[in-house]
Amino acid sequence: MREKNYLWYQFWRHTVVGNGLRFFYKKRKVVGRENLPKDKPILYIPNHQNSFMDALHVATTTKPTIYFLTRAQAFKPDIVGKYLWSINMMPVYRVRDGFSSVQKNNEIFEKCIRYLKNGDTILIFAEANHNLKRRIRSLSKGFTRIAFGAEEEYDWTLDLQIVPVGVNYSDHQTGGNTVQINYGEAIPVSEYRERFESDEKAGVDAMKEDVSEAMKKLVFHVEDLAEYPLQKILWDDLEPDDLKVIDPDIANNRIQRTQPHITDELIEEAKELEKISEKNKIDLNELAFSKQFSIKDLLLLPFYGFSFLNNFIAYQPVRYLIKNVIRDRAFDASIKFLSALFLFPLFYGIVSLILSLSGVESTFIWSYLILSVFTAPLFVRAKALFTPSNTSRLKKEKPKLYQDIQSRLSVFKDLRASILNE
């Protein structure tokens, strides 16, 4: 039976968000769609690195209606909560929200079970919170409660399928880059029936372990947190090809090949380099591969100029939020995407209205609107061309520190070349 909000949900999913993502990212690649079960209820378990962008990628690259479990904090104030409910988001309460609030999860989980019975799909971030690090963290047991609860409620007749998902970003915090969404092979909940019925904890632990291992194959994953800075520098910061960063087969193979070369000294040197780059807000990839002015840039220069001037004012509230208000960098892309989705078009509308009231011909106004929309994706590159980067400032203002960072980075460049040539 079709939901009351079906058209509203599809409007936001495909017309607004889907098209918005096509403009915001340079490329989105979907792998493993053939793994998605047909005519069966699905529980999607994606990794969670990039705030609500992760959910948007899953929602816009699959067909069924999805219900999303979202942290309860996002539902405040009430007007925001009502909107989120209308697009199939449901609040999940944590201990920090208070014991009485946590009790509300029972009602939410019951709703999830009913939706699964109807053949719908549920998305839950089993890592419980987001983190920009490229790795799978420990999974909470909330999703197992829904999975086993649904099958028990209907006497194991649902044939519920768990689909692990890996969302990989070439750059988490900006637009104009590449994303790869990987759908893993479905895991039937029925596989755990015998273990769950004989020992509930054993069944839960087995499901968590299997789903976690499946997710690790779908993302750039560093198992040992201590060596994360080293692996990130080698196979993310020093990788010139976006597609190799977001391809887990390539990235994880390289991570494994690095193991024999890891020493305590290299780990400490990587941590120190990471600390220096973060303190000075330096992008090591930008430092290693400064984007040169190309023929393409020359040809597009008038459009870059228009995009920069046209969007500069509208971007200032976004810049202020990111720089002064939002401390969690995992929200950067989300804020930028929302601005591109709503703030920029609002600004174009205001400019068009002013032009209209000034007596400008409608042909010119429509030309301005069309040009604004199609040059909006060029704003990221335009900013890079027309404003000095932190790297260029560092090189000019602190040349000794700049040379020190380059010197430190050369150690990892040599190690990377050695591993790749084996």
From TrEMBL:
The keyword Phosphoprotein does not apply. Signal peptide: none annotated. GO terms for molecular function: acyltransferase activity. Residues 42-170 form the Phospholipid/glycerol acyltransferase domain. SUPFAM superfamilies: Glycerol-3-phosphate (1)-acyltransferase. InterPro entries: GPAT/DAPAT, Plipid/glycerol_acylTrfase. The chain crosses the membrane at residues 298-316, 337-359, 365-386. Pfam families: Acyltransferase. Keywords: Acyltransferase, Membrane, Transferase, Transmembrane, Transmembrane helix. This is 1-acyl-sn-glycerol-3-phosphate acyltransferase. It comes from Gracilimonas halophila. The lineage of its organism: Bacteria, Pseudomonadati, Balneolota, Balneolia, Balneolales.
